[in-house]
Structure formats: structure tokens, C-alpha cells
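Hello,

Our lab assistant flagged a job as stuck in the queue for most of the afternoon. It eventually completed. Since we weren't sure the result was trustworthy after the delay, we are filing this so someone can double-check. Below is the sequence as submitted and the structure that was eventually returned. Let us know if re-running is recommended.
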Amino acid sequence: MNLSAKTRYALLALSEFQDREEWLSLKEISQRQKLPLKYLERIFKTLDDHGLVEGKRGPNGGYRLTRDPSRISLKEVILSLEEEIRLFRCLKKPRSDDPDWGGCFSPIWDNLNGMILDYLDSLTLKDLSTKEDKRERESEVG
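-- returned structure --
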């Protein structure tokens, strides 16, 4: 399973909203996370379309989360940007003429994919930010 750069950038950008309720500009997020502004604009349009963020124009505008970070699952964010989350392409619709189908015959892969989805559903933006913050603090000390 490979998540796109779009999803990775979205998760990095969304981590900026940790413990913040004010509007954040994409320019500020872009500079802080060293992410391309134009790409962030497209990502946040998609996140807005999925109801995860809301945007406001103007000098005091920007974006903010529509819910507390502890109430937005990583699965929800990822699925707003990726078509689906699955280990193997053939888990979607196995066919006998699909060269990958033989590897998907075992229900083990389908079960594992389900476990991954459940795990991502149990993690929130709050969890992600907390883990990244902890790693940053540990690297500064060590």
C-alpha cells in the first residue's frame, strides 16, 4: 500500500491545526512545513469538499478544521484524498484474468486490509500530531 504525496502533504498540513482554533493561511502552512503552496491549495479544496476543513477569504481568512482533531480519523482524511485504501489492487474486485488475483485468493489479505482500515479509523489527527511532536522533541534532546 502506497499513499500518495498528496495524502502525506495533507497530513503534515493538518498537523498544523493541533490545539489551534484560529484560521490558518495556506501560505503560513506552506512555509512552516516546506510544502508547495499551489499543491496545498488543491489539497485543501478537496478537504473542504469532504467537510474536513472550511475556508474563509480575506485578510484574516484561511482554513480551520470543521471538528476537533480528536474527532477526525486518519482513515477519513486518507479516503478523502485517495480512491481507496487496500494492500493489493486485486482486493477490490478479483477476477480470474487479473494477474494479481492468485495472490488474493487467501482471505488473509482481505482480513489484513480490514485490520489496517480499522486501525486507521481508530487513529485521529490528534494522535498523529502528538506522535510527531513527541518524535521532534526526542530528536532535539538526543
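-- support follow-up --
The delay was a queue issue, not a problem with the job. The result is valid. The chain has a mean pLDDT of 83. Residues 5-141 form a domain with the Arc Repressor Mutant, subunit A fold (CATH 1.10.10.10).
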